Amino acid sequence: MSQAPNEPYYVAIEIENKQCKGLRMLENAGIEKYALIDIRGVHGGPTRHLIKMPPDEIKNAPQAFTEIQTSKSGSIISAWFNSDGCNICNTIFANSSFLVSARHVKGIKIVYSFVSPSPDAYQKIISSLENQDIRFKVLEVGKFKPRSKTLTEKQERVLWIALKMGFFEYPRKITMLELSKRLGIGLSSLSEILRRGLRRLLEDHF
């Protein structure tokens, strides 16, 4: 059975990223104790990195961070900073894919989670990484498959992507505006698709 050309994929891939500009920036700033827990970005825009670190580390590069938040206990600081995307991030963005999140595992290993709009886009990312001699391991590949007669295929696809991108988590990992930009759908149209889809699910459930 052939795959639908517009069948989205959710992918988690572990990569040895020697080029990560975020990790290099932290190293150059003298920040040693940290955990890189998320990376976000879109094609043509800055790549945003989220780290957690002890309060005494932030004194090394406070001007680099765009958003800073201290935990209630005061023992951990969360901070976002921007950088230009490295080849890996840009490879994902250039193939119309959305970087959902990324987290630092160990050394130079980072696990990237992203949504590709089609099997072709996913394969182009894999081929590009191979051509660049980048070492990686695919951890998960989840395909979108229509499962419900309750929703239209468009409603189901949009809700699936919104779920994968953390729209329904608390706090949200992505705003309605960011989601609409990544899907290429107007804000009012996206709101209507989500509202009608959720209403159908609730009516079917109750």
Low-confidence stretches: none
Order of helices and strands: EHEEEEHEEHEHHH
What is the 3D form? globular
The major pleated sheet works out as: 4 strands, antiparallel
| Strand order of the biggest β-sheet | 6-7-1-8
Can you put this structure into words, describing what you see?
By secondary structure, the protein is an alpha+beta fold. Strand 6 and strand 7 (109-116) form a beta hairpin. The strands form 2 sheets. The chain has a 4-stranded antiparallel sheet. Strands 2-3-5-4 form a 4-stranded antiparallel sheet. Helices cover 33% and strands 29% of the residues. It folds into 2 domains: 9-143, no CATH class; 153-205. It is built from 6 helices and 8 strands; from the N terminus they run E-H-E-E-E-E-H-E-E-H-E-H-H-H.
Q: Key features?
A:
206 residues, alpha+beta, 6 helices, 33% helix
Which helices and strands appear, and what pairs or packs with what?
Elements: E1 9-16, H1 21-28, E2 35-40, E3 47-53, E4 65-70, E5 77-83, H2 87-94, E6 98-106, E7 109-116, H3 119-131, E8 136-143, H4 153-164, H5 176-183, H6 187-205
Helix pairs in contact: 4-6
Q: Could you give a quick summary of the protein structure above?
A:
Helix content is 33%, strand content 29%. It has 206 residues and is of the alpha+beta class.
